């Protein structure tokens, strides 16, 4: 059975004005660098107001840069998912209760539990401090979901697959397929619902879900078969050369990955002791050393193991000045956040002990995060000539 509607092709940029070109379609890994920087910022911030500004900045960037492609229309789903996360955390906190401080906002009847369930309470008083902590923790996870969803809405997954190193080619196939399952299902749902509306079928609720489920699954199977046929016809995954890489390269790559994981754990999960060097705890220096060493060894190992695969790329996505600028902005955002949360900065601005407040310097972080919205503005095309 053929699809209800054919898969839409990517819409080409408007060429009415030859003096300007759009910078909306930046390199996908540039967008991912910005999204990961926003995720790091959300993870390190415990200020509810600052998290709200960061979420607003992410939404502004996505709305300013998303195009007409089907995979760029899943923002509503990620917004709904973020809202569900916040609502579920609030419900669980209200039902299960806690030991927060502050004035009591709601006093629910408490269910008596047996002795073996000591430490667990169902119901009881809901305090202001408990509600603030729950909202902040849920908002942090919700902003993290929005950041990763923004990357899915802005970065073309097919272009991202073509731009990975040769050594990670097989792994990147699995990762990209995993990350694009949800956007593809969203695109299929949009397309099938549009076809049903054109046929005058505007049913809603469970009946609409049942009528849409089978066409969505059929569309997914047909798309997978078409992709597999296309990849097979182009010799995808085959190697043209068999070069000896060395037995120690794989072990070095695994060791580098372990060193990076342990370094991140020491950097973020181990509390600093009294001993400090240049204002930073010794544990953090150990984490930085492990992270840097693992990154360096990992890059060298990837370059060596990539010699086995002779991967060709058709029309590779260029990495121009705009991509370098976006990468520099992402790195600056991470460095600025880490510095602000250290002893040199003002950690209480990021993680206040009481009711959250906004200081003028802390507002710089969401302002830096919203700067990629300017990528949607047309820039002069130096190569344009008038006849």
Walkthrough of the structure:
It is built from twelve helices and six strands. It has helices at 28-44, 48-65, 75-96, 128-154, 157-162, 169-198, 206-233, 247-269, 282-305, 321-341, 347-350, 364-369, and strands at 20-21, 104-111, 122-127, 276-277, 280-281, 379-380. The longest helix is centred in the middle third of the chain and has 30 residues, at 169-198. The protein folds into two domains: 20-196 and 319-380, no CATH class; 248-308. By secondary structure, the chain is mostly helical.
Quick summary:
This protein is mainly α and 387 residues long.
Quote the beta fraction.
5-15%
Order of strands, widest sheet: 1-6
Task: Tell me, rounded to a whole number, the average pLDDT.
Answer: 74
Shape: globular
Question: What value does the Rg take, in angstroms?
Answer: 25 Å
Element layout with pairings:
Blueprint: E1 20-21, H1 28-44, H2 48-65, H3 75-96, E2 104-111, E3 122-127, H4 128-154, H5 157-162, H6 169-198, H7 206-233, H8 247-269, E4 276-277, E5 280-281, H9 282-305, H10 321-341, H11 347-350, H12 364-369, E6 379-380
Helix pairs in contact: 1-4, 1-10, 2-4, 3-4, 6-7, 8-9
Salient structural properties:
387 residues, mainly alpha, 2 domains, two-stranded antiparallel sheet, 6 strands, 58% helix, globular, disordered N terminus, transmembrane helix, Energy-coupling factor transport system permease protein, membrane
């Amino acid at each position: 059975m053929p699809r209800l509607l054919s898969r839409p092709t990517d819409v080409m940029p408007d060429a009415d004005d030859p003096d300007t070109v759009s910078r909306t379609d930046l390199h996908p890994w540039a967008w991912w660098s910005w999204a990961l920087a926003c995720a790091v910022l959300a993870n390190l911030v415990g200020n509810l107001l600052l998290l709200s500004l960061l979420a607003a900045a992410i939404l502004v960037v996505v709305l300013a840069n998303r195009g007409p492609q089907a995979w760029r229309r899943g923002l509503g789903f990620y917004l709904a998912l973020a809202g569900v996360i916040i609502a579920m955390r609030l419900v669980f906190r209200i039902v299960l209760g806690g030991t927060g401080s502050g004035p009591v906002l709601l006093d629910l009847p408490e269910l008596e539990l047996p002795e073996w369930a000591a430490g667990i309470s169902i119901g009881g008083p809901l305090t202001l401090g408990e509600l603030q902590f729950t909202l902040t923790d849920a908002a942090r996870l919700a902003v993290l979901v929005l950041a990763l969803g923004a990357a899915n809405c802005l970065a073309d997954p097919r272009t991202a697959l073509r731009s990975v190193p040769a050594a990670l080619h097989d792994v990147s196939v699995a990762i990209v397929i995993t990350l694009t399952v949800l956007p593809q299902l969203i695109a299929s749902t949009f397309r099938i619902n549009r076809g049903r509306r054109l046929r005058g079928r505007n049913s809603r609720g469970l009946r609409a879900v049942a009528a849409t489920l089978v066409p969505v699954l059929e569309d997914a199977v047909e798309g997978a078969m078409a992709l597999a046929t296309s990849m097979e016809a182009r010799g995808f995954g085959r190697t043209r050369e068999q070069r000896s890489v060395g037995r120690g390269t794989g072990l070095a790559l695994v060791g580098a990955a372990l060193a990076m994981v342990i370094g991140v754990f020491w950097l973020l999960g181990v509390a600093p002791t009294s001993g400090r060097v240049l204002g930073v705890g010794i544990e953090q220096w150990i984490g930085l050393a492990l992270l840097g060493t693992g990154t360096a060894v990992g890059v060298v190992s990837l370059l060596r193991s990539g010699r086995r695969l002779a991967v060709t790329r058709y029309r590779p996505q260029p990495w121009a000045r705009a991509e370098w600028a976006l990468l520099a902005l992402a790195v600056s955002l991470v460095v600025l956040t880490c510095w602000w949360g250290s002893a040199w900065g003002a950690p209480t601005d990021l993680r206040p002990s009481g009711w959250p407040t906004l200081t003028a310097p802390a507002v710089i972080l969401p302002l830096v995060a919203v700067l990629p919205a300017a990528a949607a503005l047309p820039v002069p095309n130096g190569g344009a000539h008038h006849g």
